Automatic annotation (TrEMBL), chain A:
Topology term for the membrane: Multi-pass membrane protein
Gene Ontology CC terms, in alphabetical order: plasma membrane
Pfam hit, one: BPD_transp_1_N
Upper classification of the organism: Bacteria, Bacillati, Actinomycetota, Actinomycetes, Kitasatosporales
InterPro entries per the UniProt record, alphabetical: BPD_transp_1_N, MetI-like, MetI-like_sf
Name this polypeptide is given: ABC transporter permease
Keywords: Cell membrane, Membrane, Transmembrane, Transmembrane helix, Transport
Keyword DNA-binding carried by entry: no
Annotated TM spans: 12-30, 109-134, 146-167, 187-206, 242-268, 293-319
Transmembrane helix in keyword set: yes
Organism whose genome encodes this protein: Streptomyces phaeofaciens
From TrEMBL, chain B:
Organism listed in the record: Streptomyces phaeofaciens
Superkingdom of origin organism: Bacteria
Region (Disordered): 1-24
Entry protein name: Dipeptide/oligopeptide/nickel ABC transporter ATP-binding protein
Alphabetically ordered keywords of this record: ATP-binding, Nucleotide-binding, Transport
Residue ranges of domain ABC transporter in the record: 29-280
Similarity annotation: Belongs to the ABC transporter superfamily.
TrEMBL record, chain C:
Stated name of the protein: Peptide ABC transporter ATP-binding protein
Gene Ontology annotations for the cellular component aspect, listed alphabetically: plasma membrane
Family annotation (InterPro entries): AAA+_ATPase, ABC_Ni/Peptide_Import, ABC_transporter-like_ATP-bd, ABC_transporter-like_CS, Oligopep_ABC_C, P-loop_NTPase
UniProt keyword Cell division, yes or no: no
PROSITE patterns: ABC_TRANSPORTER_1 (PS00211), ABC_TRANSPORTER_2 (PS50893)
Length: 326, 379, 353
């Protein structure tokens, strides 16, 4: 199994390298000249040449790529802005900041948002889903199922402003969304993110309610469940020990996808609540044609997705011995 | 409507062919040294082939025109793979499959096209082998369409004819598979196989998914089709009684090899290979209307069939055989006619058993748990 | 008791000496298409240490009956009427906690496909130890010792190591042995085996059947053996009950039923099966048609649409009147006892020769 994970890791690295090549060629091989944008209205050929040199795009594309790769691994000091330690994605065209440190600045917010929301929606979604499965066919089940249908058809840009309007601006029950470092002030961190968490997790939770319910019900129809019941194990025991274990597989699969996309930046949520996370950064980089930044955000998101996949695979192995031992 | 009521179009030959006669007819299908190995992937860091599942490992068999040849064996013996190799759903790793003298073991799709219509297959599961979105008429006329065959009077007439042959109501050609019961669905499968007037039908466990009373209906139908349309059958099944009932000649497979082959009387009453003895003795039998059942030998093997990834050296059965000796591990026994065998009865064993299935002086109980419990009970 | 005088009659009171006694059991399911009467008025008794074989095709109600004995039906969609008495205790109305004490302890079950019937997520040893800990209050360690002992007894080599393996690491036959070990871990008085060898190869089936017989000798438990295979029943059972479309149609000892079967359905089954010693030139004589839908079962005798002997009864009784199954040796058919005997001897038996 360890071999399998190692192989997956190696494979992921290969994918990441290929992705870097493709992305780099797409961005820097484009006929569009980023220097023109920076040069402004009073541009002279000399000035343009100068900018080309500072940006390092006067060289051939393969040469540029090699320098870029070297920078990723070992860092670079050929930038006018100063040294750029590994992993070096270069300096942003727009802010002149190091891309990596920009990413790292924005990351805590995105991670806080994603993990906080995940905790909430897993708790609520799986809880309600399992309760619905336990009481299948009853009023509880039916109302949870109906409720989750309604909620999962909602959108963040609808629920978000609604929550802001009602819970924050009218009733003042909650603070306005704002990001504070967890280490600086844990209480402010919590109160500032609670509304985004709730809104984000409402939509996800509904989906997990339905999934947990259906996969529990499916598991409960497995023959080994009947066997366990036939040897006298109680319904509760069978539910939580036998059915629950099997129903985790589809849940973990979807969770991996959701988590990786949220960690790559929950664009709509961040914009709805004005939180400057990675998603925000991605949009900014597109707006300003900030190629180094865009490349950095993209590769970072890709790495997160690949990492999540490996974690999901490891989780499968943990849950299901058939995966572990094959 | 049962098949007894059905009138078949112009039977080419009267029924009641003797077993010996069948063996003398010209060969339709000749299989020589047929081998199929499936690669096993593994290894680190780059996955590569680390082993071979020796599903079929060098088998020879001949099916004559109009003959029914049975292939029995337990799961994993390679009987289904053999069927798929012969119909070329799979490509052999080695050996040769000749149909009417033409080598088809590596024939391309185009080369196979004319032969495909003559070799048809019937599958085990009547539920999954029929497309649920097609009407029965469409399913049965499918093979005609693919092969561009326009029978006299049109395809629909032919479909009705076929439905009647297999004992279904010809008016039902517009219905969908789910409107039929399991046995009826298997009849649809038979009708589809008959659509192109095949010369050889490979039937892979055609009745094992059906209830006992329905099984008999389908067996009778196949038998009637076989006799009256003079179609050769390769009948693959694990049920020894059904195979005996259906096939004039029978081959017993174990771990990718044929270990014994012969006409049905030889195999079932004068078996020589220890595995054939064990198989036959394991079949639970009803003695109906008898005062006491005939005493048959009792042989209880230990454990299950070993993995075909690393089969035992020499004789593959030796790990479960009570007669195994050093020679069995060192030397693979050839499939030959051993002294005392009737003609055409071949056995692959260094130390063959007596040709009888009658009870022995002492049961052969190799299973340790059984041996322990039975000894404890007596002593 | 080989001749039956009373051919009709209401269900009799529960057999006094019987260990398990089922009286006039009706089980029906609510489905989207309507109500399925899966078991319709079934009565039988089972004595300690005996083996009752229940034969029937799919949909005959043989499995449903036994799930109902243990209360393993889904109560939301199922209606159960009648009596199931286990040592005098009524099970149909028993509380869930009461049933849990019985399951796996006094009555255990083994199922057809040991691969799907064992959980893939826990080791074989743990799954065997669980009921022992629950019912006997044994410690983890004691339960583990017992597990290893049971695995050894059913013939698993190196039981101490194999107990730590998962079901998928076992071969098919070994898995079924593990299932048997699990069922017998608490020394049940009754073992219900639902097609336990159908998914197995014939040589492995023979091992498992013999193992069950030998273990029964050893422990003295009663067995209800459910199968579609008359050959297996002949090998295993003391008594036979033949079921068709939710009814028992024939009952008796193995000798009685197989030596002189009395119901047209039993005849049909026997005529449908090729045997190792039957004449291959004689075509099989299948039962025409297919089993009925239990959503809308046939009136009168449920077998009448497929029965080739109903014209010998006359008066349309087969269509109008349901034949009842008397206790002990009996068959639920309107043919007279003489007719049954003559038909079997003159028309059925010669075909089987």
């Amino acid at each position: 199994m360890l071999r399998f994970l190692l192989r997956r890791t190696l494979g992921s690295i290969v994918i990441l390298v290929l992705l870097t090549v493709v992305a780099f060629l797409l961005f820097f091989g484009m006929p569009r000249d980023p220097a023109l944008l920076m040069c402004g209205k009073t541009c002279t050929p000399d000035a343009l040449e100068n900018i080309h040199r500072t940006l390092g795009i006067d060289k051939s594309i393969p040469e540029q790529f090699w320098i870029f790769l070297q920078g990723l691994v070992m860092g670079r000091d050929d930038f006018a802005q100063g040294p750029c330690p590994a992993p070096c994605f270069g300096y942003s065209y727009h802010t002149n900041e190091q891309v990596w440190s920009t990413l790292m600045d924005r990351l805590p917010l995105t991670v806080s948002l994603a993990l906080g929301a995940t905790v909430v929606f897993l708790f609520v979604g799986l809880g309600t889903g399992m309760l619905a499965a336990w009481r299948r066919g009853t009023l509880v089940d039916k109302s949870f199922t109906a409720g989750s249908m309604v909620l999962s058809s909602m959108q963040i840009y609808f629920l978000g402003p609604l929550a802001l309007a009602v819970l924050v601006y009218q009733t003042h029950l909650f603070d306005e969304p704002r990001y504070t470092e967890l280490t600086a002030d844990p209480v402010a961190w919590f109160t500032g993110l609670i509304i985004p968490w709730v809104v984000l997790s409402t939509i996800f939770a509904a989906q997990y309610t339905r999934m947990a319910r259906s996969s529990m019900i499916e598991q409960l129809q497995e023959e080994h469940i009947r066997t366990a019941r036939a040897k006298g194990m109680s319904r509760r025991y069978v539910f939580f020990r036998y059915a629950w274990r099997g129903s985790l597989i589809p849940i973990v699969t979807i969770l991996g996808i959701d988590l990786s996309s949220m960690l790559g930046g929950a664009i709509i949520t961040e914009y709805t609540f004005g939180l400057p996370g990675l998603g925000h950064l991605a949009v900014e980089s597109v707006q300003f044609s900030d190629l180094p930044l865009l490349l950095g955000v993209m590769l970072f998101a890709a790495a997160v997705i690949l990492l999540c996949n490996i974690v999901v695979d490891a989780a499968y192995a943990f849950i299901d011995p058939r995966v572990r031992l094959s | 409507m049962t098949q007894e009521d059905v009138v078949l179009p112009a039977p080419r030959e009267a029924e009641g062919r003797s077993e010996a006669e069948a063996g003398e007819r010209e060969p339709l299908l000749v299989v020589e040294g047929l081998t199929k190995h499936f690669p096993v992937k593994g290894g680190f860091p780059i996955r590569r082939t680390v082993g071979q599942v020796q599903a079929v490992d060098g088998i020879d068999l001949t099916v004559a025109v109009g003959e029914s040849f049975g292939l029995v064996g337990e799961s994993g013996c390679g009987k289904s793979t053999t069927g798929r190799l012969i119909t070329r759903l799979l490509e052999p790793t080695g050996g040769k499959v000749s149909y009417r003298g033409q080598d088809i073991s590596h024939a391309s799709r185009r080369e196979l096209a004319p032969i495909r219509s003559e070799i048809q297959m019937i599958f085990q599961d009547p539920y999954s082998s029929l497309n649920p979105r097609q009407t029965v008429g469409k399913i049965i006329s499918g093979p005609m369409e693919i092969n561009g065959i326009e029978p006299e009077g049109g395809r629909e007439k032919r479909v009705r004819e076929l439905l009647e042959i297999v004992g279904l109501n010809p008016e039902h050609f517009n219905r969908f598979p789910h409107e039929f019961s399991g046995g009826q669905r298997q009849r649809i499968g038979v009708a589809r196989a008959l659509a192109l007037e095949p010369k050889l039908i490979v039937a892979d466990e055609p009745v094992s998914a059906l209830d006992v009373s329905i099984q008999a209906q389908v067996v009778n139908l196949l038998q009637q089709v076989q006799r009256e349309l003079d179609i050769a059958f390769l009948f693959i099944a694990h049920d020894l009684a059904v195979v005996r009932h259906f096939s004039q000649r029978v081959a017993v497979m174990y771990l990718g090899k044929i270990i014994e082959v012969g006409d049905r009387t030889s195999i079932y009453t004068r078996p020589r290979h220890p595995y054939t003895h064990a198989l036959l003795s394991a079949v639970p039998e009803v003695a109906v209307g008898e005062d006491s059942a005939p005493q048959r030998e009792r042989i209880r093997l230990a454990g299950d069939v070993p993995s075909p990834i690393s089969p035992p050296s020499g004789c593959r059965f030796r790990t479960r055989c009570w007669k195994a000796a050093e020679k069995c591990a060192a030397e693979e026994p050839p499939l030959v006619r051993i002294s005392g065998n009737h003609e055409g009865h071949l056995t692959a064993c260094h130390f063959p058993e007596e040709p009888t299935t009658e009870a022995r002086d002492e049961d052969i109980v190799l299973d340790p748990a059984l041996a322990a419990l039975e000894d404890g009970g007596e002593g | 008791m080989t001749t039956v005088t009373k051919e009709a009659g209401a269900p009799v009171p529960a057999g006094a000496g019987a260990f398990l006694s089922v009286r006039d059991l009706h089980v029906s399911f609510r489905t989207e298409d309507g109500v399925v009467g899966a078991v319709d008025g079934l009565s039988f008794d089972l004595e300690r240490g005996k083996t009752l074989g229940i034969v029937g095709e799919s949909g005959s109600g043989k499995s449903v009956t036994n799930l109902t004995v243990l209360g393993l039906h889904n109560p939301m969609f199922t209606t159960v009427e009648g009596e199931i008495l286990l040592e005098g205790q009524e099970l149909t109305t028993a509380r869930e906690s009461e049933l849990e004490r019985i399951r796996g302890n006094k009555v255990a079950m083994i199922f057809q496909d040991p691969l799907t019937a064992l959980s893939p997520y826990y080791t074989v040893g743990r799954q065997i130890a669980e009921p022992y800990m629950k019912h006997r209050g044994a410690s983890r360690k004691a339960a583990w010792e017992r597990t290893v002992e049971m695995l050894g007894k059913v013939g698993i080599p190196h039981p101490r190591e194999r107990a730590k393996d998962y079901p998928h690491q076992f071969s098919g036959g070994m898995r079924q042995r593990a299932m048997i070990a699990m069922a017998l871990v608490c020394d049940p008085d009754l073992l219900i085996a639902d097609e336990p060898t159908t998914a197995l190869d014939v040589t492995v089936q023979a091992q498992i059947l013999d193992l069950l017989k030998d273990l029964q000798q050893d422990t003295g438990s009663a067995i209800i053996f459910i199968t579609h295979d008359l050959g297996v029943i002949a090998d295993m059972a003391d008594d036979i009950m033949v079921m068709y479309a939710g009814n028992a149609v024939e009952r008796g000892t193995v000798d009685e039923v197989l030596r002189s079967p009395r119901h047209p359905y039993t005849w049909g089954l026997l005529n449908s099966m090729p045997r190792l010693d039957s004449d291959p030139a004689t075509p099989l004589a299948p039962i025409p048609g297919a089993p009925p839908s239990l959503l809308n079962p046939p009136s009168g005798c449920r077998f009448h649409p497929r029965c080739t002997f109903q014209d010998r009864v006359g008066g349309g009784r087969c269509v109008d009147e349901r034949p009842l199954l008397a206790p002990d040796r009996a068959s639920a058919c309107h043919l007279t006892a003489d007719q049954k005997r003559t038909i079997f001897v003159e028309e059925i038996k010669p075909r089987l020769g």
